[in-house]
């Protein structure tokens, strides 16, 4: 006996010296059949915005607390396979923001729930058919705390959120469980944005710590969970949901005897018979509540809410915050209504003056009902109606196009029609939607996508005239499909029309540069160097811009500099130098290469550096934030005579997530040398006889819209001069979706959060021009106005309570582009000015909570306004000098 005591003493000493801990083998939990384990449980759900000191009540959290007493008891067992019964004895619901507000959750205590438990993993869950979805979900949140594994490392398991990746780590008598990822089992109704800049970043952190009592049962379990969503374009616009769970063991008592059964199914039959409950089986993942429309559902309700915002939707309200706000408020109603209700609103005589805006709304809804309503309402064969083009403009920006939409657009694309404007709008819109649809590789392989692509290519192949070819080449630019690269580069090199060649090179813009092969790069170099034939300088300039993004070799850059040294085409040489200087500012590799090349005195000379042309390319910052830099680029390409050939204003967002072209405004012209009495001598034979023409093209979010032709031929030129509007005239109006994200988060406690983020821009493009042929003087102003509204809602909605937070960002501004041109003598004098007036950016954050059975809800709002000061943007020192000359002449 003494020897035994000595051995035990030394064993204990050794164990203490080695910091021994309980050995946990397989599942660490051992719940005994015939015992009942009582726990207290609390869970908090808090909503707020990050980074805010909670110094006042409006800045404090809102949400709810659920407290309960539960009993867990194994009622059947076969080896490690057990059937547990969980009963909620009592439960209360409390308000976080109002401590005196609480209610009893009788629905939780009404029915028990059963679950299969095997070696720490939860299998099937068996709930009463009469139990509510919310009640079952909350009980599943409780059950999820009993899913725990002993082994260190990552495992996959079906969790409350779905298919989860979980990391386990032992720490003494504690087990730390960290969820590293989860895929929802039900994704219907959720969608994202194809443009990362316009997306929402969602970050989730979930950690559960288990304290085991002697390795047998869970003594305590606590979960800390936080989900933050923020706009990529402005990270300060954000919200979060914090969830805490606490499960504490209070006592163990004798339970009822277990039920008999050779299998778990036999045991369930016994339970069903004894309890007289009909059970339904499901996985641990929480179930979606199918929300039924409860407000603004019928046609009368829809018409009422449209009438409420009618003044805000009128044309004169476009590009104002009231218009974009109204659009956001109406959008969710349009997404939940029927085809007949939408048609009734579209046909209502009271809405006749806002039909274009209702079309924008219906397009943005992107539901089968909304698409059916539009196809029934719009007559695409009516050449006098502006509605088909309004629909096609809006649909080009569909954020999550459906197969049904693809089929409808394919039908419009295939149909022969005489109206060239509608035909062009259809081709550009269909191609843009195809691009969005094909961002999902699986969707791009579908019959709908392949039919769309083949139809565009067939239309192009069957073109007999240049305008037709130009139309479908531009469409391929919107589609941005890799497989069209060989066709585009061949067209760029071999087309006899410089407009088509330019469009073909430009149409490669949406294709990832990694797909441009060495052979395509060689062709672009042949175009720039004119190895086969002469090309218009605008085509060569577009090829150069693309080549400079492809990590050019030192040899190629040397050839570019040699070309710029040649003053035969001095305006083009001036543009080349401007382009090289511009890229050197942002590309360190090219900068080093060029500086090395210029060490050669044969290249670095006065003729290269002192260019005499007026062509230019200059960039500057519009705004800088911690998330994005917005830059503008002004490009002017002139003919040898000094007459403008092509100018553009491009606004681009540069951020961590994406480089996103926001807008590009092109003005193009040819044959205007007749105004100066001088002929342009540059270019090839295709420019020997050119009728005067001019036009404008607008790209929004890298989507080309149908070009607008000001005039073609001398007759139309004179008509344009005499009829030019001296007061601003609207050329384009629309409201389009920018942000569109719907996402569900399955919380660990069983509740489900829905994130709903929409952002729209209401825009108006207008212009006015005054031309005097007698004084040979022209003045113009082009105003691009826009209003932005982004609304992000985080909602937890149940029949028992609602908790919600909203962030709202809005602002309206405009960019004025003014030009004064004196063409009385050569060289021309031109003064260009680009500026924006002051505006206010408004940011608000609203929190709301309501408990059923209470008389009052709670709502708080925090407002923040930021004034953006007026700004005039740098264009070019030469332009500034000419502005001073013109001002002096006027005085």
From TrEMBL:
It is found in: Endoplasmic reticulum. The keyword Transport applies. Its main location: endoplasmic reticulum. One of its GO terms (molecular function) is phospholipid transporter activity. Keywords: Endoplasmic reticulum, Signal, Transport. InterPro entries: Lipid_transp_b-sht_shell, Lipovitellin_superhlx_dom, MTP_lip-bd, MTTP, Vitellinogen_b-sht_N, Vitellogenin_N. GO terms for cellular component: basolateral plasma membrane; endoplasmic reticulum; Golgi apparatus. It holds the Pfam family Vitellogenin_N. GO terms for biological process: lipoprotein metabolic process. The keyword Lyase does not apply. Signal peptide: none annotated. PANTHER family: MICROSOMAL TRIACYLGLYCEROL TRANSFER PROTEIN, MICROSOMAL TRIGLYCERIDE TRANSFER PROTEIN, LARGE SUBUNIT. This is Uncharacterized protein. It comes from Owenia fusiformis (Polychaete worm).
